[in-house]
Amino acid sequence: MVLAIAGLDPSGGAGIQADIQTLSSIGCHCTPIISTLTVQDSSALHKVHPVSPEILDQQIATLNDEFNFSAIKLGALGSAENAKLIGHWIQVINKKQKKIPIILDPVIKASDGSALALGDHALRNALVNEVIPYCTLITPNEPELKILSSCDTHDAAIKQFTDLGVSVLTTGGHTKNIVKGTLENQLVIGSGEQEYWEVDTINGEFRGTGCTLSSAIVGFLANGFALNEAIEHAQRFVSNALEQAYTLRSGQQIPQRSNLSV
Ligand code: PLP
After folding, report:
1. DSSP code of residue 130
2. Among 51, 72, 146, 189, which residue carries the largest CB count within 10 Å?
3. Ligand 1 centre distance from Cα of residue 208 (Å)
């Protein structure tokens, strides 16, 4: 059972729907909690409406009373208040159970580049100080890494988090290497050890690829794979989902995450 806390994209392309579909394809039961509502269509984000910390608190407390989770996936958290509350809960859950994998996809902007959170700066601080230190892995793309870190260079930014014992998977999805047709994903684990994957790019504009990759990693970790194996399987899952993607009326394509064989 995987606890996913993320935003709702009513077009069904990203956010919690991507998490539920991905996790169920990988054979995990997802207990989904919505951190923020949005108004968006297949092309643009129009409005963000974080849920109240009170209801979030009750939902997490109620699930935690009844269940033990195999892993936790965090996506867009909506507001600094919600991020702080979730930081508190992941410490509680980590004490109750043996330390479980906790993955944060630090989504700050939507696929069209609009802000997915109220008070970006306060949210960034809450993520950096109150959520990331308790995570196993964060999966920022380069722009997200830049927003989160106070350091100037890529390596220093990663070290800021690996020094806390947090592994960092930087994803190259935002900078397609058109010439080679590949992108590079880099994992730096807490000890400083590194691994790289060159992934073939698939032509097109897709919604929810980051959500799909991070929830697939969580699913494979929950199924007992080691971190580097979980990342490899998750990258293959995303490639398959993009190869079979479908289009709504217009806008970005939707990765095919349901009933995808793994
Ligand atoms: N979460 C929500 C609720 C979103 O609406 C989006 C994108 O619009 C994302 C996450 C991030 O999507 P992507 O995986 O495309 O970065």
Report:
1. I
2. 72
3. 5
First to last CA, the chain: 18
**Cα-trace Rg, the chain:** 17
Per-residue pLDDT at 199: 85
| CB distance 79 to ligand 1 below 6 Å | no
Going by CA atoms, what residue is nearest to atom 8 of ligand 1? 110
pLDDT at position 261 is: 66
pLDDT of residue 113: 74
Q: Which of 103, 57, 56, 53 is nearest to 81 (CA)?
A: 53
Q: Is the CB of 211 under 6 A from ligand 1?
A: yes
Ligand 1: which of 20, 107, 147 to mutate, judged by most atoms within 8 Å of the beta carbon?
107
What pLDDT sits at residue 176? Answer: 46
H-assigned helices in the chain: 15-25, 53-66, 80-96, 120-126, 142-148, 154-162, 209-222, 227-243
Give the position, in ligand 1's atom list, of the atom nearest the Cα of 112: 8
Q: Is domain 2-243 annotated with CATH 3.40.50.300? A: no
pLDDT per 10-residue tile (average), the chain, 262 residues:
97 96 97 96 88 98 97 96 97 91 89 72 94 96 90 93 95 58 82 85 88 97 96 94 89 86 66
d(CA 91, ligand 1 centre) in Å: 25
